[in-house]
Amino acid sequence: MVVSMFWLWIGLGLILCFLEVLIPTAFVEMMLGVSALLMALVSLLIPNTAVQIVLWLLLSVLLIYLIRRFFPHRKALSLEEAVEAQTLTAINPGKTGRVLYEGNSWQARCEDHHLGIAENEAVYVVRREGTTLIVIPQKQLDQYT
């Protein structure tokens, strides 16, 4: 039983470390994997599976906390008001579509819920609500200037 838990922890650790390469998670999976590899050694000393799992969780949290201290803290991204974008898909009234903003595709909705915006039309970004940009068509603004 002790030897099988050793190999289980080794396998879990290697899988988690490999997953970090495939799906980067800011070293969370890597720290889970490293703590699993350390638990393989601990499993040779402590044969109780429940204790091993609790120790693995505690060690994982500790390693994640320690590694996060070395990452720079990011500021929340803010959008400037009235920045130009272009629609990638049509934005139907009251629905969402896609816009090209700063080289990235964003989900977008027209501020006027009764107004639709055609594809490949210039728009202004008014604000952001979560991951959705709120836009108004440029031609609508041009009517008032």
Automatic annotation (TrEMBL):
- Keyword Membrane found: yes
Q: Which Pfam families match?
A: NfeD (PF01957)
Matching InterPro entries, A to Z? Membrane_assoc_protease, NA-bd_OB-fold, NfeD-like_C
Give compartment(s): Membrane
Chief subcellular site?
membrane
Q: Which domain of life is it from?
A: Bacteria
Residue ranges spanning the membrane: these are 6-23, 53-71
* GO cellular component annotations of the record: plasma membrane
Q: Where is the NfeD-like C-terminal domain?
A: 85-135
Q: Secretion signal: which residues?
A: none
What is the membrane topology listed in the Swiss-Prot or TrEMBL record? Multi-pass membrane protein
- Keywords, in A-Z order: Membrane, Transmembrane, Transmembrane helix
What name is this protein filed under? NfeD family protein
